[in-house]
Each structure stands twice: as C-alpha cells, then as structure tokens.
C-alpha cells in the first residue's frame, strides 16, 4: 500500500483523510493536540474557544453537519447577536454550530474517528527526496519513506517546506490577516444584551461570551478579537499592556465596574485568508511536477472552517481520480 504523510491536523488535513479511501496515512503535527486554529484553551475551570468561534449554520457544505453530528462533535446554539454594536444594530436571535464541549470537540472527535497514527509535538522542518521517495525531517529526526506528502497548513508555512520541489513563480502569494485574541474572566456580569457581536469599538472587531457555549464556570468569560488593521499596527505590543487596554475598553463600553480576574492573550499570525487561491486562479491546491507533494488548506477556498473542509474534500477527489487513471 502506498505510504502517505499528512503534515498538520487542522480541519483541512482531517477532511482530506476522511474523503480519501482507506490508506496508509500518518499525520505529523507540531502541536501536542489536533485541530490547528480550532482550539479551546483551558485555564483552571475556564475554557475559551480562542481560535474559530463557530461554524455558520448556513455554510452550504453537503454532508458536513451530518458527519459532525454522527461523531457527536457538535451542538446547535441559538442566542442574541448584534451585527454592529457601536451602531446600535438591533439584537437578533442567531443560530450557530459549535463544538459539543468547546470547539476543540470538532477536531478531537474527528481525529479519533479516523484512527490514523499521529506523531504529535513534531514540527516538520524540511522534506528530502532520495531515490524517488520522500522523507520528512524534524530537526535531526527523519521519517519515511513516503510516496506522497500532503501539507495542510497556512500558505507561507507550506511554501517553506515545498519551495525546493514546487515552482512558486506563477503562484500568487496568499496573504493572511493576523489577529490578537484576548481571553478574559470577569468577577461580575457585564450586562451585555447579546452573547456575541461585531464592532464593539473601532479596535475590537468581535466578542463572544464563553458561558453561553460552555455553561460551567461562575465568572463571565469572554473571547475578544482585535481588528486586523489594529493588530497589524500593534503586532508587537506587550501582552499585559494589550490585556489592560482591552479590559478598560470593555468596562467603558458596558459601563461596568467588574474586575477582570483572569487575562490571557494570543497573537494568531495566520487567522483569516484575505483572498483565496481559487479566487486568484481557479486552482484548488498546489502540487509538485511529479504529483507526489501537495499544499492545501482553508486558504485555497476562503477564510473559514467550511473552506478547510472543502479544500480537503476537493484534493481527495482529485487524488483518488488521478490514482485510478
Ligand atoms: C482568531 C480566529 C478566529 C476564527 N474564527 C472563525 C469562525 O468563527 N468561524 C470559522 O469558520 N472560521 C474561523 N476561523 C478560521 C478557521 O479557524 C480556519 O479557517 C480553519 O480552522 C483552518 O483549518 P486548516 O486545517 O486549513 O489550517 P490550520 O487549522 O491552521 O491547521 C494547520 C495545522 O498544521 C500544523 N502545522 C503547521 N506547520 C507545521 C509543521 N511544520 N509541522 C507539523 N505541523 C505543522 C499546525 O499546528 C496546525 O495544526 C478563525 C481563525 C482564527 C485564528
């Protein structure tokens, strides 16, 4: 059986493995857990979905909800939502899909369902080709040989691995917005009339109440995203300065005297794809001339979870067809 390496365990990697026929697949993941940008950060009793917030209910991907329901990974929530808080947009009831026990349930249950061996805490640093076979290197460690290697990570990271084998001169540079994310727990309710919404201030683009999703901690926990242009300007701000600034903005906006008793921030270098590969040149992935190395991910289709799913699905379809011919 042909040996396949998949680098990354985000949703696009999991989708690829799910849509391929049963093969000899090994995942490689630099983190200690699967999921990439779908991540739940736990701190004591608190849990924050500090990467992707939710999957749109009307994402349009045939079979995705049914599959995630079958593996018991999701639940549907309905809650008050505000499109534009600073402009006092009316509060609407909005339905969303989230992980059953935090968004991490989605990749955790998906990965478990696949049953493929996974080498965690291993950052692949280069790919080598010897006698028509490929090897993955993580520092001094070497894995392989593999017949095929699929890189399921943000564009720039896969380019670093593949540029020896792929001519990037005709491939557009796919850019991502960086986003600062702040996780806060307040000792009192803020009294917000919504559970999630956009544009609280000119700096804060989105915020979401975590009690609404997780329902098991006493303090009020929020995840806050700064705007992409603000993040670019303050990319190197000290975490504690950022956290104090955001707390003061939140208290002012809600006219609250609540104290933040927990603060943590994370800078996502790659959060949202600005313009996808498909939008640039109608392609769905990048491949080497010998058809053995591939790069794909949400950035091939768009900025969201459903685009990661679609990217893996499209590449699996192409690969299955190519191998049959
Ligand atoms: C703050 C934030 C908020 C978001 N909000 C939403 C939202 O509300 N709704 C929505 O639909 N989408 C949202 N998204 C986008 C969504 O998270 C992504 O579209 C999706 O998770 C991307 O999946 P992926 O598999 O393509 O990439 P990733 O999830 O980035 O997976 C890449 C994987 O590769 C691994 N990796 C990278 N380099 C290496 C290496 N050298 N060796 C080994 N492993 C490596 C990484 O650790 C990671 O696990 C958000 C993203 C962020 C950051």
Protein architecture, described:
By secondary structure, the protein is an alpha/beta fold. It has 2 domains: 3-38 and 106-173 and 275-324, 3-Layer(bba) Sandwich (FAD/NAD(P)-binding domain); 40-103 and 175-273, Polyamine Oxidase, Chain A, domain 2 (Alpha-Beta Complex). Helices cover 26% and strands 34% of the residues. It has 9 helices and 19 strands. It has helices spanning 11-19, 64-70, 105-114, 155-162, 211-214, 228-233, 239-253, 277-281, 305-324, and strands at 3-7, 24-28, 40-43, 46-49, 55-56, 74-82, 91-99, 118-119, 126-130, 133-138, 141-146, 148-152, 176-186, 196-198, 204-209, 220-226, 260-273, 286-287, 293-296. The strands form 4 sheets. The chain has an 8-stranded mixed sheet, sandwiched between helices. The chain has a 6-stranded mixed sheet with strand order 8-2-1-12-19-18, with helices on both faces. A hairpin with a 5-residue loop joins strand 14 and strand 15. The longest helix has 20 residues, at 305-324. The two termini are 17 Å apart. The model has no long low-confidence stretch (mean pLDDT 96). Flavin-adenine dinucleotide binds next to helix 1, strand 13, strand 17 and helix 9.
Question: What attributes does this structure have?
Answer:
single chain, 325 residues, alpha/beta, FAD/NAD(P)-binding domain, Polyamine Oxidase, Chain A, domain 2, 2 domains, eight-stranded mixed β-sheet, six-stranded mixed β-sheet, elongated, binds flavin-adenine dinucleotide
